[in-house]
TrEMBL record:
Its main location: other. Belongs to the Nudix hydrolase family. PCD1 subfamily. Its EC number is 3.6.1.77. This is Peroxisomal coenzyme A diphosphatase NUDT7. PROSITE patterns: NUDIX, NUDIX_COA. The keyword Nucleotidyltransferase does not apply. Residues 38-171 form the Nudix hydrolase domain. It is found in: Peroxisome.
Length: 244
């Protein structure tokens, strides 16, 4: 029984991954946005299968950090000269922050980027990692590492939306999730760009309507997500020009 149960668990884990891979590849933007003249950053969205469900690994930023201390985010950071591309940046940062070896990540795709409050072009890189991965957080950067079922980002138990105006006056909504983690006996607040990427990832993979409003045309997620991004970028570009 042990062996056959193990092999059937492996089979179902592989089929969950394969479904996700196929969906994600349809949304792969490759380097289509890499030429935009903004400083570059990348984050890794590490997916794993636990108990027959997709989960997402997140980190809690150290309180010692100057920027966004104590906030939830994905492993990631600014592009450095040694990085070949956004994927390299995400993998290097994940290794530095949580001890995830690049060869232990099966990179699937790059999704539509976002723009953070420092006006970096942030590219989300999606990859699979093993559910047995044991993080070794770098205490200078990360105070905690936890996982959330991906489904939580379309069917949350504790959610609110914050109306939000970008630096350019572009009106939008910001998702804010509170996730009670029983393993850590802690509640984590997931919001901002991190929540934006997690929601988009869940919409892509599950292809179902969330229990809350989103700024996408769900019947045409690919082009509406790219249009949203280009509107945001255009509003930033206009402001840059007017500041010259």
């Amino acid at each position: 029984l042990g062996v056959s149960r193990r092999s059937s668990l492996f089979a179902s884990r592989e089929s969950i991954k394969e479904k996700a891979r196929l969906r994600l590849r349809e949304f792969d933007v490759g380097d289509r946005f890499s030429h935009l003249p903004l400083p570059k950053a990348s984050v890794l969205l590490p997916l794993m299968v636990r108990e027959g469900k997709l989960h997402l690994l997140l980190t809690l930023r150290s309180m010692q950090l100057r920027r966004s201390p104590g906030q939830v985010c994905f492993p990631g950071g600014k592009c450095e000269a040694i990085d070949k591309d956004e994927i390299d940046t995400a993998l290097r940062e994940a290794k530095e922050e949580v001890g995830l070896q690049p060869e232990k990540v099966e990179v699937i795709c790059r999704l539509v980027p976002g723009i953070d409050k420092m006006n970096h072009l942030v590219t989300p890189v999606v990859g699979f990692i093993e559910d047995t991965f044991q993080a070794t957080p770098n205490p200078d950067e990360v105070s905690d590492v936890f996982v959330v079922p991906l489904e939580y980002f379309v069917k949350p138990l504790n959610y609110k939306t914050l109306p939000y105006k970008t630096s350019t006056g572009y009106l939008s909504r910001m998702h804010c999730f509170i996730y009670d983690d029983h393993e850590h006996k802690m509640s984590f607040k997931i919001w901002g760009l991190t929540a934006h990427f997690a929601v988009f990832l869940a919409l892509v993979i599950f292809g179902e309507r969330p229990t809350f409003e989103v700024d996408y045309d769900l019947d045409d997620l690919i082009s509406s997500s790219e249009k949203n991004f280009m509107n945001l970028y255009a509003s930033l570009y206009k402001r840059k020009k007017s500041n010259l």
